[in-house]
Design goal:
The chain folds into 2 domains: 97 residues; 113 residues, Immunoglobulin-like, CATH 2.60.40.3940. Helices cover 2% and strands 40% of the residues. The protein has 1 helix and 15 strands, in the order E-E-E-E-E-E-E-H-E-E-E-E-E-E-E-E.
Length: 247
Amino acid sequence: MTTFIFANNVNTTLAGAVSTSATTITLASTANLPTTIPSGSVLVITLNDAATRQNFEVVYATARTGATLTVLRAQEGTAALAWLTGDYAFSPPTAGQQASFGQLAEANTWTGNNGFTSPVAVANAVAAGEAVALGQFLMSLGVPGYLEIPAFAAGSPITFILQWGSGTAPASGGNTTSATVTFSQPFSNACVYASANALGGANSVGGGNPASNAHNYSKTGCTAVFDVLNFTTFNQSLSFTWFALGY
């Protein structure tokens, strides 16, 4: 994509004739020309005959030495013509310049590294292929805590939630104990996975590492279940953590 530079009020004539194959043009005045044309950029110049005002050629100036411009001829659908001393040379807006600008009502493709001095507001994404706003990622780092991730499933936007917390199961006196877990962030549609993890032993004397599971999970919670498989009994309360995924 062409990178344009701009200058106001460049309006002069040619200081000499220009053949159809020439790659430089010399202007009668340097008034309002940019001091330099950066490498990789162009300044648009339109040539127009003084005799009839009916003939035009758009050229792209790539370099400047005094009043002489190095140019790319026959740009934007125009043809390379022969020009006379005194024909007009000026820098108006052209269709090529305008087409390089983003259009608010169109789908625009941006290339290159663009820097912004102020934050750019991005609306929440509602369809695949749209930019996701940082504000759509909600998170609480506490216990309980959660992370909300915007996603798309079967063509529809969803909010996928990872959440975690802790709890305590009572001393049941038996081989198993359990506790009800209430999710801090109820899922709108379904819980797709839940787990529990014991943080201590079942018995204050004999220890025992319980097997941990999460059962009966729903949109609002699950049951954390712990089992020592007849090796000992739960004679003390048991701390545990839990984790759940859903949307």
